[in-house]
Design brief:
Number of helices: 6
Shape: elongated
Structural class: mainly alpha
Number of strands: 0
């Protein structure tokens, strides 16, 4: 199989992940509204704004990924047709740049998770608990997204190296 086919597989994986993120975030916004309108406790009502905030963040991420990865397909095809070797070199360089961010993002996301736990434990008001849970939710979702993204990136990078 040629590198461009692996590139298309990588893009399909990114698009699938973007759709899941977007679906999750819209579902989260709906859940926030359900908590607010049908919940009858202060903790349920307090979930509205933190969950909507998290939903908006992940909607932005998902839609951004859908938009940017959809546009890449044509550009990648054109670049590959012009010069498969230059395409492989540019993809290698691009992957090396974004692959360094995975270890950094794990530390950032872990810090957000610890902060969420601290807020949840020590800020015992309904809004404090809601913010804490929302930060923990951000952490869990970011770990899932980064885990599968890193796996795809490593596989794709291996194919790039094989094609050179």
């Amino acid at each position: 199989m040629e590198l461009i086919q692996y590139t298309h597989d990588w893009i399909k994986g990114e698009l699938f992940e973007a759709k899941l993120i977007t679906l999750f975030s819209v579902t989260l916004i709906v859940i926030a509204l359900l908590f607010y309108f049908f919940g009858n406790t202060p903790n349920a009502k307090a979930m509205l704004f933190p969950l909507i905030f998290v939903g908006i963040i992940f909607t932005s991420v998902g839609v951004g990924m859908l938009n940017s990865n959809s546009k890449r397909t044509d550009a990648f095809n054109l670049a590959y047709q012009e010069s498969p070797k230059e395409f492989a070199s540019s993809e290698k360089a691009r992957c090396e740049v974004f692959m360094t961010w995975y270890s950094t993002s794990r530390w950032i996301v872990s810090t957000i998770g610890v902060l969420g736990i601290i807020i949840f434990v020590f800020w015992s008001t309904p809004i404090g608990r809601a913010i804490g849970m929302s930060l923990i939710l951000i952490t869990l979702m970011a770990f899932v997204v980064d885990h599968f993204s890193e796996e795809r990136a490593n596989i794709y990078y291996k194919y790039i190296l094989e094609s050179m």
